[in-house]
Amino acid sequence: MVKFDRRALLRHLGMFAITLGVAGAAVAQDKSIVMASTTSTEQSGLFAHLLPAFKKASGIDVKVVALGTGQALDMGRRGDADVLFVHDQAAEEKFVAEGYGLKRSPVMYNDFVLIGPKADPVGVKGADIVAALGTLAKSPSSFVSRGDKSGTHAAELRYWKAAGIEAPKGTYAGYQECGCGMGPALNIAASSNAYVLADRGTWLSFKNRADLAVLVEGDKRLFNQYGVIVVDPAKHPHTKTALAQAFADWVVSAEGQATIASYQIGGQQLFFPNAATK
C-alpha cells in the first residue's frame, strides 16, 4: 500500500501555484507592443501625454523606439516593431505597397519651420521655404541637417531640390549633417548660431533656444502629416497584430484624436488631429 505523503503533496501544489503565478505574470507583462516612431513625437512630449491615456483605455503598454522615419520603417521591415507612427507619406505608402504594413492611416499634422538666428544675417525671413534655402546656399552661414533619413530630413531634401540644389552636402559649404534626432540638431544650431529645419512640435517644446527664432513659416509646402501603420503579420507572424491594431484604432478614434488636440505647451497646440478628414 502506497503511503500518502501530505507534505510532498503540499510542496507540489505550492510549486504549481508559483508556476501558475509566473505564467500569469508573463501573460500580463506580454500585453505590450513595440512602436517605432519619429523622434519628433517623443521629443515634443506628445507620447508622454498620449500613451498614458491609451494605457488607461486599453491596458496595453507601448514601448517606444524613437528614430528617424526611415529607420523606423526599417524596423518594421525587419519585424522589430508591431506598429509605426511616422511622417513621410511617400515612404509610408511604399512600405505598405511592398507588403510590410496592413494599412496607412492619417492621424494628425503640424508643420515644419525654418529656424535661425534672430538677427537673420542671411535675410531669409518670410513664408517661402524654397527661396530661403536658395538664399542660404549662397551665404557663408551654417545649416544643420539631421542627415538621418528621417521624415524631417526627407522633407528638407525635397525643399533643397525645389530650390535647384540636388546635393546640398556637396555644393553648400555651410551644410553639416549631424546624423541625429530633432532635439540634438536644434542644440547644435543653438550652440553654433546656425539655421535648421524643424517640426514645430519639437521647436515649441525645445528649451535651449539661445538666440534662435522661427524665420520661415506658413508655406503650404511645410505641411507635415503623420500616419500610423500596423506591421503586416503575413511578413512577420510573431508581431502582436491585435494589440497593435488596438492602438491604431484608438489613435484615430474620437478619444484618441481629442487627446492629441489637448496637448499644448504654453497655450499652443502642437499637433492637429485629422484622421476623419484625410
From TrEMBL:
InterPro entries: ABC-Tungstate_binding, PBP_domain. Residues 27-255 form the PBP domain. SUPFAM superfamilies: Periplasmic binding protein-like II. Keywords: Signal. Residues 1-28 form the signal peptide. It comes from the Bacteria. PANTHER family: EXTRACELLULAR TUNGSTATE BINDING PROTEIN. This is Putative exported protein. It comes from Methylibium petroleiphilum (strain ATCC BAA-1232 / LMG 22953 / PM1).
